[in-house]
């Protein structure tokens, strides 16, 4: 059951109908209520996020609104028992057809690189939400946001070097994290840049971690 899973940041969740109804009834902000109704009507997913200060006792989820709605992020909390299903973010190959034409070669190269290194990857951010909803999230300054699973420690340097090479020829910035099995991740640029201490983002917050310890995990 979805309620028994260990949830991670960036995962997508669908709720049971009764949970959607409770969320709608709890909303007092008219804009948030209208967008949540739209989400419910279209059966679009919510995304698991890191809890905000003071949030406790539930699963922190949210939905990011498109630029036409001011790029707001609606923060919500649900119970584990409210979650009907869990899914990963779209893969690189899933988003190619909605990516700007100029991005597609770089997206394919990144997908091939992930396959070569046996790395799982998911896309979050504007491109992912445009693929999931069909709404207009992408702009001229949009980045490509990716979550990669951690390559084998002997291949991390080679993997990150290739990501940097692909970005150097790409028309967009490539942002993202390398993540451990528990969902904790680090920014790929920090690791590629040779920092000895890096910011580790986990379910509960952000803390400094040695690069050697992270790679060794």
Find the structural class using helix and strand composition: alpha+beta
Strand order within the widest beta sheet:
4-3-2-1-5
Average of pLDDT = 92
Helix content: 25-40%
Shape: globular
Radius of gyration: 18 Å
Terminal CA distance reads: 28 Å
Largest sheet: 5 strands, antiparallel
* Beta strands, count: 11
Relative strand content: 15-25%
SSE sequence, one letter per element: EHHEEEEHHEHEHEEHEEH
Description:
This protein has 217 residues and is an alpha+beta fold. It is built from 8 helices and 11 strands. The chain has helices spanning 17-26, 30-42, 92-95, 104-116, 125-133, 156-169, 188-192, 211-216, and strands at residues 12-15, 46-48, 59-64, 73-78, 83-87, 121-124, 144-149, 174-179, 185-187, 197-201, 206-210. The strands form 3 sheets. A 5-stranded antiparallel sheet has the order 4-3-2-1-5.
Can you lay out the helices and strands and say which pair or pack?
Elements (H helix, E strand, L loop, with lengths): L11 E4 L1 H10 L3 H13 L3 E3 L10 E6 L8 E6 L4 E5 L4 H4 L8 H13 L4 E4 H9 L10 E6 L6 H14 L4 E6 L5 E3 H5 L4 E5 L4 E5 H6 L1
Parallel strand pairs: 7-8
Antiparallel strand pairs: 1-2, 1-5, 2-3, 3-4, 6-7, 8-9, 10-11
Helix pairs in contact: 1-2, 4-6
């Amino acid at each position: 059951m979805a309620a028994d899973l260990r949830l991670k940041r960036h995962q997508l969740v669908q709720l049971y109908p009764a949970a959607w109804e409770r969320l709608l009834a709890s909303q007092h902000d008219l804009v948030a209520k209208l967008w949540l109704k739209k989400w419910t009507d279209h059966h679009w997913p919510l995304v698991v996020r890191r809890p905000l200060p003071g949030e406790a006792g539930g699963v922190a989820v949210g939905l990011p609104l498109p630029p036409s709605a001011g790029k707001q992020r609606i923060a919500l909390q649900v119970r584990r028992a409210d979650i009907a299903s869990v899914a990963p973010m779209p893969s690189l190959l899933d988003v190619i057809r909605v990516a700007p034409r100029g991005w597609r070669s770089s997206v394919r190269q990144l997908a091939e690189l992930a396959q070569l290194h046996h790395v799982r990857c998911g896309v979050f951010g504007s491109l992912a939400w445009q693929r999931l909803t069909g709404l207009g999230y992408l702009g001229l300054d949009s980045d490509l946001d990716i979550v990669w699973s951690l390559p084998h420690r002997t291949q991390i340097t080679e993997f990150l070097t290739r990501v940097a090479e692909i970005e150097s020829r790409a028309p967009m910035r490539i942002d993202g994290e390398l993540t451990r099995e528990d969902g904790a991740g680090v920014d790929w640029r920090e690791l590629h840049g040779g920092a000895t201490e890096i910011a580790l983002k986990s379910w509960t917050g952000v803390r400094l971690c040695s690069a050697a310890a992270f790679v060794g995990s």
